[in-house]
Specification:
The chain is of the alpha+beta class. Helices cover 40% and strands 18% of the residues. It has two domains: 121 residues, no CATH class; 208 residues, no CATH class. The protein is built from twelve helices and eight strands. The C terminus is likely disordered.
């Protein structure tokens, strides 16, 4: 199979209206140097998918007969393609059946995360991308590139600005009193994976909350509950809830194996840690009338669905070229990486039931009945 054949197979995985999205998004106001919309997208995917620099991508595209452009022109096309790539990511998520909205309505939702990327080569620098995505549009409203070393480079809520009434979803790296206090001070709410050792919990009488005792009542897979708790930051007390669900036996065994590997690598793993690993624990400031424990856990599951895709993105990004031109090109690069990750996910799904000839046939727009 030739490279052109490979590209045609890949096109079969794209959203059905990807060309229309390219035109309506403004990504193709000019095609100077590119023979077609296909050539433009193929060149952009060479840049974000292969991890080549803009200059190297321009050279490789010329050698392959795809396009003849300078690295500056390619950078401008990458900037223009930001909304196009984002919309194609949305379409691929819809195709996979993942809803990008929580089960309760009425609140703007944001997903916060960070990932480490590396320059190519053994001595390449490490960088941390901090980003915020708005759901369900996947619009990136914050993008920051920092070193992985030094003060203030880690995951923290204080890096972001919040609006009253919005809901913030984040992983356990953001679960500490100072960060939660910053979200609450902005009159926003959050659902964050609970770190039991990083976030001390108290009951209404200001006594340590007996979390393990409460968890002991969740004995079967799928058992869930929620309890009111308080946390402390300075002289203030912040009200919230812990929502918990017991994992399946298979998920518990996987979690225990990961803890055993950590123990074998010299890290301390106590019996409490092994108990906590039997559950998914989420801390939220959402009032109970606004969201039940099940709805809170579903909201966090939405964050985890996206995280599964970003895990693929992270494995790809470690081999890629880190953009350092401006926020717009960096966001477009991030969407391009996400698009490649979603394509790989779709390809893996298709591969489970692949046809004998090795690819899917395009669906006929008006199928005719067969006599």
């Amino acid at each position: 199979m030739t490279e052109l054949d490979d590209w045609q197979v890949l096109l079969g995985l794209f959203p059905s209206e990807w060309r229309q999205l390219g035109r309506s998004s403004g990504a193709v106001r000019r095609l100077r140097g590119f023979a077609s919309l296909d050539a433009l997208l193929r060149t952009l995917l060479l840049h974000v998918g292969c991890g080549w620099s803009l200059r190297e991508t321009a050279v490789q595209a010329k050698l392959a007969g795809i396009a003849e452009v300078s690295d500056v022109t390619l950078l401008n096309r990458l900037r223009d393609a930001e909304p196009w790539l984002r919309q194609m990511c949305q379409e691929l998520w819809k195709e996979s059946g993942v809803s990008l909205e929580p089960s309760f309505a009425g609140r703007p939702v944001r997903l916060l995360d960070a990932t480490v990327v590396r320059e190519p080569g053994r001595t390449g620098s490490e960088w941390r991308i901090h980003y915020s995505l708005r759901l369900p549009t996947l619009e990136c409203d914050h993008f920051d590139l920092t070193s992985t070393r030094g003060a203030g480079t880690g995951e923290r809520f204080g890096r972001f600005h919040f609006l009253p009434g919005e809901l913030v979803l984040a992983d356990a790296g953001y679960c500490h009193p100072a960060g939660i206090a910053a979200v609450v001070a902005a009159k926003a709410d959050l659902c964050v994976r609970l770190s039991p050792y990083g976030l001390p919990l108290f009951d209404e009488q200001d006594k340590p909350f007996p979390l393990l005792e409460r968890l002991g009542k969740l004995r079967k897979a799928g058992d869930l509950d929620g309890w009111p708790v308080w946390i402390k930051f300075g002289d203030s007390r912040i009200a919230g809830r812990v929502c918990a669900i017991r994992k399946s036996q298979d998920a518990i065994q996987k979690a225990q194996r990961r803890l055993t590997l950590k123990q074998q690598n010299g890290k301390r793993v106590g019996p409490k840690t092994r108990r906590y690993a039997e559950y998914v624990l989420v801390f939220t400031t959402l009032p109970k009338p606004d969201a039940s424990a099940a709805q809170v856990l579903e909201a966090y599951r939405l964050r985890w669905q996206i995280e599964l895709t970003f895990k693929r993105l992270k494995s790809i990004a470690q081999m890629g070229h880190v953009p350092k031109h401006d926020d717009q090109s960096s966001r477009a690069w991030l969407y391009g990486k996400l698009f490649v990750a979603l394509l790989s996910q779709k390809l893996a799904t298709v591969g489970k039931a692949i046809s004998p000839w090795g690819y899917l046939l395009p669906q006929a727009p008006h199928p005719q009945p067969v006599a």
